[in-house]
Amino acid sequence: xxxxxxxxxxxxxxxxxxxxxxxxxxxxxxxxxxxxxxxxxxxxxxxxxxxxxxxxxxxxxxxxxxxxxxxxxxxxxxxxxxxxxxxxxxxxxxxxxxxxxxxxxxxxxxxxxxxxxxxxxxxxxxxxxxxxxxxxxxxxxxxxxxxxxxxxxxxxxxxxxxxxxxxxxxxxxxxxxxxxxxxxxxxxxxxxxxxxxxxxxxxxxxxxxxxxxxxxxxxxxxxxxxxxxxxxxxxxxxxxxxxxxxxxxxxxxxxxxxxxxxxxxxxxxxxxxxxxxxxxxxxxxxxxxxxxxxxxxxxxxxxxxxxxxxxxxxxxxxxxxxxxxxxxxxxxxxxxxxxxxxxxxxxxxxxxxxxxxxxxxxxxxxxxxxxxxxxxxxxxxxxxxxxxxxxxxxxxxxxxxxxxxxxxxxxxxxxxxxxxxxxxxxxxxxxxxxxxxxxxxxxxxxxxxxxxxxxxxxxxxxxxxxxxxx
Length: 470
Ligand SMILES: [Cu+2]
Known about the structure:
The protein is an alpha/beta fold. Strands 1, 2, 3, 5, 7 and 11 form a 6-stranded mixed beta sheet that branches. It has a 6-stranded mixed beta sheet with strand order 12-10-14-19-16-17. It has a 5-stranded mixed beta sheet with strand order 13-21-20-15-18. A hairpin with a 7-residue loop joins β16 and β17. The chain has 11 helices and 23 strands. It binds copper (II) ion. The site of copper (II) ion (CU) has 6 residues, from loops. It comes from Haloferula rosea. This is Copper-containing nitrite reductase.
């Protein structure tokens, strides 16, 4: 039964490249060179109404760059940074693609573009040794936002070193115009040292296999979109985020704190969902998130698997200038005493339920440990060692031991700006904690009694004196 069909099938397969060569599927006459951009920038929208023959040239380089303050990493890149260059073409375009591998590279590389229809997405066709360049072409048949990545063995390692980016295939009719477009790609990184451990970090295959990421970041480093580098927009702007996830392992729960996505092209496809709080961006996938800015302030981009945001780096800021719309968001209007039990309690002294006052150093240390565990351990760690590059150590801290009154002030007022503790610089914020004089005295006495510190006993009277001196 199958016999007569087989040669027929074979003939059909053989015929298709012929048909192309014969010109049934024409090469577009319009030629152009694609504009490529580094994150967070996006190439301009495509306005032409016809397909073009588009040239894309990407250069692979292996470069040492900043992963976090004091932490460097050897990234393997498409175009010099992570993520790779943003590529923007139109549905129906014929893309002439050249991959160059810089002579200084140690590894061969290639590219698998998810926008490609064809074996390996171009991977085999672009296998490129250091100091070589390869070329292939593909037709952008499907509109959508696609990840591209290196697929050279060991594939996971090439992706883990930052070899991914986004290619947008605009639908023929184009995307609706917006005021701002940004390019954001999440990736997880596996380093020989722990998060924040300074110096040039190597890649840890073991942690990568365990999917135990040290860093989860947007656009290739901790702080790529904070401070001076925050994304900028104005009240009233419509914003479009092209969001990708290079992985290699983790799925992103992409969220912007204080915003609701009016529209999400989920999974980077053509359909939209409305009024979305958090959208899932798979490893090797994407999403397009759109929203209008109704009020000013800082809006924070996170992976809502939230330890990744606050402890591994997956955090960026969209800074929106313009007046806040107080009807949309009032800010805090009041903070007043809330005492549901009624009037009698309101007249009681506010510290009536405080722990008994310590009468000697031993009691002070014991009480101080409770204060420490409740208020300090989350940042300075239960053993006082801190977190490199984020929270300074209290264990054997030269800063702590040098000046008792300054330590008291730190706990009363919080601390910000650059400080040097045991030779390492920190430039972060310790919040004001609102502790009683007794609690401050106890917690500092506890801290001074631990971890090779100087053993001072701090009395509540001394805390009161420091408070009064301000
Ligand atoms: Cu590679």
